[in-house]
């Protein structure tokens, strides 16, 4: 019961975090990670209450499948950071003052990635 209740909550929080990630949220790899989290969230909220050992085994198999789907999330997030750095270097992303931004100056992005 604990995982069935708690995992959707944690996934929802992670989806919100990704939506709030400054500049990173627009990178294709980060959007792919967000899609993985959304699909997992939707799959878990459709899971009926477990009432017998057979349903528990089916839920465990579903969790294993979700675990496999999330196995490359860390790599995808790193790829998103590289995409952002390339966009900054190419001048595609500017600071609020209009000057060329430096990746090293993007404290909010760094803090987000540290927490992720």
Explain this structure:
The chain is 69% helix and 0% strand. The protein is built from 5 helices and no strands. By secondary structure, it is mainly α.
Please specify the SSE layout and strand pairing:
Layout (H helix, E strand, L loop, with lengths): L1 H19 L7 H18 L7 H17 L3 H17 L17 H9 L1
What share of the residues lie within helices?
A: 55-70%
Beta fraction: under 5%
Number of helices: 5
Structural class: mainly alpha
What series of H and E elements makes up the topology?
Answer: HHHHH
Low-pLDDT stretches: none
Task: State the end-to-end distance.
Answer: 26 Å
- The shape is elongated
Largest sheet entry: none
Q: Taking Cα atoms only, what radius of gyration do you get, to the nearest Å? A: 18 Å
What's the mean pLDDT score? Answer: 88
Number of strands: 0
């Amino acid at each position: 019961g604990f995982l069935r209740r708690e995992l959707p909550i944690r996934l929802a929080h992670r989806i919100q975090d990704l939506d709030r990630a400054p500049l990173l949220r627009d990178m294709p790899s980060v959007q792919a990670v967000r899609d993985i989290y959304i699909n997992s969230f939707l799959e878990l909220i459709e899971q009926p209450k477990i009432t017998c050992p057979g349903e528990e085994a089916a839920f465990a198999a579903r969790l294993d499948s979700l675990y496999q789907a999330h196995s490359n999330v860390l790599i995808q997030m790193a790829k998103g950071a590289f995409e952002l750095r390339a966009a900054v270097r190419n001048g595609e992303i500017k600071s609020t003052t209009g000057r060329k931004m430096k990746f090293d100056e993007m404290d909010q992005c760094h803090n987000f990635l540290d927490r992720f």
